[in-house]
Amino acid sequence: MTTTAEPRADLAALTLDPSDTKRLEGLVQVAARLTDPLEQALQTEAFAALAERLPARLREGIESFRDTPPDHGLLVVRGLPVGDIPPTPATYGSNVLGETHPSSLLVALVAHPLGGLIGYEDEKSGALVHDVYPVPTDAAKPLNSGSTLFDFHTENVHHPVRPSHLGLLCLRPDHDRRAATMVASVREAEPLLSADDRELLRTDRYRSRFPLSFTRGLAEDERPVTEPHPVLTDGPADAPGTRVRFNMHNTFGTDPEAQAALERLNRAMHTVHRAVRADRGELLLVDNRIVVHGRSDFTPRYDGDDRWLRRFYPYPGELRADVLVRAGGRVLSKDSYARA
Ligand SMILES: [Fe+2]
């Protein structure tokens, strides 16, 4: 799909006041003095105590979003302190900010009420906080480092341990303020589908290729494919409601009927979607179980002033030792797929 419907506009943001912003700056400064690497530090009592001191309106907003997400599955927070930002890098894999930059510590604090950060050994070398900026060699690819339309997808659709939420903190918008994160909720799209499609999408007639971001260096036909899975499922008794799992670039029906239903779902997602153009200090949190997200196209200049987001993956559950890279850590190993 190369065009998008007009987005819905009804979205309230949680806007912090200057005293909240100042309080957050103070918490980040204290967090910077914790000496452990971030992966360990964020599991300490000291870090938990800092997260308890998040400004009340922010903490309550995140907890409410966690416990009773709105049907649109999106929370926008404005007024976050992001620190001094150097020029936007233009080569893949530049890790210019590191774990102790204020924006890294800020997202770790924000993710704490959502269960804390996870990373993946086979994506961005297991980093817990990712840098998202355009790279010339990826311009036309459906990647976070690309700049053409990136259609709707569940984050890490192929992985058995998918982040419950996805966070995107804007350090710098694109020059033209054109780049939009598109978010579409299954809770709003499903009513547009026929009963037959809703049933079909709940069958194991779909598979997903591993995304490009996890398979850098592999040829297209070398990318692994998941076992068959449904696109729609019903949530557990304590969190009822439909959940969604697909990546329009990588998920496919195993027969034409299943594929057609997936394409109708994607069209319904475009009909109900919302588009958010974040500015510096704005955070988008989405519930990765009930929304799919994507990005509009935009025009990078590769001049050091390009769009730059920090991306992170909250996950609320315990992780077993045998799926982790490091004991007691939060990074899933690249051979964890069969065990997770
Ligand atoms: Fe994504």
From TrEMBL:
Tell me where in this chain the TauD/TfdA-like domain is found: 58-313
Pfam families, sorted: TauD
The UniProt record lists the keyword Ligase: no
Alphabetized InterPro entries for the sequence: AlphaKG_dependent_hydroxylases, Clavaminate_syn-like, TauD-like_sf, TauD/TfdA-like
Q: List UniProt keywords, sorted A-Z.
A: Antibiotic biosynthesis, Iron, Metal-binding, Oxidoreductase
SUPFAM superfamilies xrefs: Clavaminate synthase-like
- Cofactor annotation: Fe(2+)
Q: Which GO terms describe its molecular function?
A: iron ion binding; oxidoreductase activity
* Record bears the keyword Metal-binding: yes
UniProt binding sites for Fe cation: H153, E155
GO BP, one annotated term? antibiotic biosynthetic process
User: What's the family?
Assistant: Belongs to the clavaminate synthase family.
The protein depicted here goes by the name TauD/TfdA-like domain-containing protein
Q: What is the lineage of its organism?
A: Bacteria, Bacillati, Actinomycetota, Actinomycetes, Kitasatosporales
